[in-house]
Amino acid sequence: MSALSLLPARRSVPGVFVALTLTLTIGWLVVLLDGGQLFNQSTTVSLLHVAAGLGLVAVGQTLVILGGSLDLSVAYVISLSTLVAAETMNGSDGAVLPAIGLVLVVSAGVGLLNGLLVTRFRVNAFIATLGVGLLLKGYLDNGYDGPAGTTAPSLVHALGYQRIGPLPVSFLLLIAVTAAAWFALSRTRFGHHLVAVGGDPEVARLSGVRNDRVLVTAHVLCSMCAGLAGIYLASRLGSGAPRVGTEGLYDLESIAAVVIGGTALAGGRGGVIGTVGGVLLLASIDAIFNQLEVDAFFKQVIRGVIIIAAVAVYARRAMRKAA
Amino acid sequence: MQTVQPRSLPLRLPRVRPGGVLPILAILAVLLVLVGIRQPDFLAPQSLMSFLGRSAPIILLAAGQYFVIVSGEFDLSVGSLVTAQVVVAARLIDSDPARTWPVVLLLLAFGVLVGLVNGLITTRLRVPSFITTLGMFLILVGAVYLWSDGAPKGGLSEEFRRFGRRAFEDVPLLGRVPYALLVLVVLAVAAVLLMRSDFGRTLVAVGDNPRTAELSGVRVWRTRTFAFILSGLAAAVAAILLGGYSGVSFQAGAGLEFGAITAVVLGGVALGGGRGAVVGAMLGALTLELLFALMNFYGVSGALRSTVQGAIILLAVAVSATRSSSR
Lengths: 323, 327
Hints:
Chain B: The complex is composed of two ATP-binding proteins (LsrA), two transmembrane proteins (LsrC and LsrD) and a solute-binding protein (LsrB). The complex is a heterodimer. Chain A is mainly alpha-helical. Helices cover 74% and strands 1% of the residues of chain A. By secondary structure, chain B is an all-alpha fold. Chain B has one domain: ABC transporter involved in vitamin B12 uptake, BtuC (Orthogonal Bundle). The chains are: A mainly alpha, B mainly alpha. The interface between A and B is large, with 44 and 44 residues.
């Protein structure tokens, strides 16, 4: 964890892991009193599956938020990616690699568009990515009424359901992507530049950072992460689903996970490790409530409260530090 | 970043500049001409009046959203608030006409309360408004489903619905004037007057530079909280009109927050605050509605609505952004 403090502006241990530990402990006790078992094989596995999907998106989202931007189009990129993947594969194992390649290219294209709108055309990130999201939504609404395409059985098996011990392959994929993002942020020039741009664009520019290029790269990476999440969901569902991204609220939830993980919404401060903590926290709450058979709608209310409360706690800390 | 002099604000409105209303008026005029060519009947007083009445809710939401955006924040909770209001109204009224007015008052109070909570959490607890109102969105949607066990219950009384669907008949020259249009006109005038008052100037100053405003004695948190309250109130009125016009469903307010934000931005209001006019925001909403009507006349599939909305908003913002940077 100490590696997190490599960047000067960062906190040592994100508070989210304290919250995660507390939540899991309390949740475990409550579920135990309720006569259940929080950490049995099937609940743990399903918790990690939930975390894998949201996590892939949230790690990408962390990159753009660190750079002071935002991506509201991820939910549609996910839906689009499941369709591109499933329709390209069309049930044949031989087409897995081309399909994955195509998804990454398409999602990178969307990211490029987002990035160029934000940098070259100076459109506010909120509006730019919302607009691109709406473009994709129209395409999806117009072209698809329901599931389409078939995911190759080998991919369904490997990425959707295969696991090593209690760890699903998809969660290992999340760990790999997180590690790569962590490395990029803390050890490469791109990472340092990105944090600098998010912290103060003008200062970054004057110190010779090419802000535009850095931000466009972050947007491309963010969309590609959403594309990966789409491939994962396609392998889970067995087909392309035109509304899976929006119904899962992946846009707003991923931003929530990033912010709960301690990354400042304004950019320049935070990291992917905290984001994974945020994702695990949201997934744990989900798992605990499922075990307690809490009403799904009540779960959503609690979710809203937790998101606000978590960010309020961070804001309080920052205020105290500043004082 | 050019410096803005808050004192000259009321005079800035008519001139062409970022935040001015002329561009949106031009777009509106072009759309009107296009509609006129395709469907001349549409421009007859009768259908124009009913179009304006139908557009009243989104125009009001745009005005509400404007107050929040010009003060430098966001309100993503309005769509869910409209849904919650409509569902709550149906359940409480339960088709009993006698309960109409108490419920209307309750809805307005509910709107104020949600705005107050949004505002206080954002300003006092320093949670970014994006997160506050996103959380509120989740809470309201969850709560309203929870409270009604997944399906809307009860029903609206005819007295309640008349605000959204009835009209003054046989008005000279205009024909039929919907109640909703009257509500819209009154509230729009009130909004414009409010923006010309001290409060309006303070609101813009807070959005332009909160630090400067704070140092010159403005209580920023109070101003911003009031903006959220106005947005909540606008959502309450919009819900009353929408519930009357289209009835009760969980989809009543779906996506309205983004529609309102689109309209505000289309009207030349800068996200981040400090620039733009409330008239622009309302015209933006009207333009958006007119655009959808036009698409309808040209037989464009309803599924493509969002694509067009997305393209328009990107185009409008990109054009205004490149223009303001080239000055």
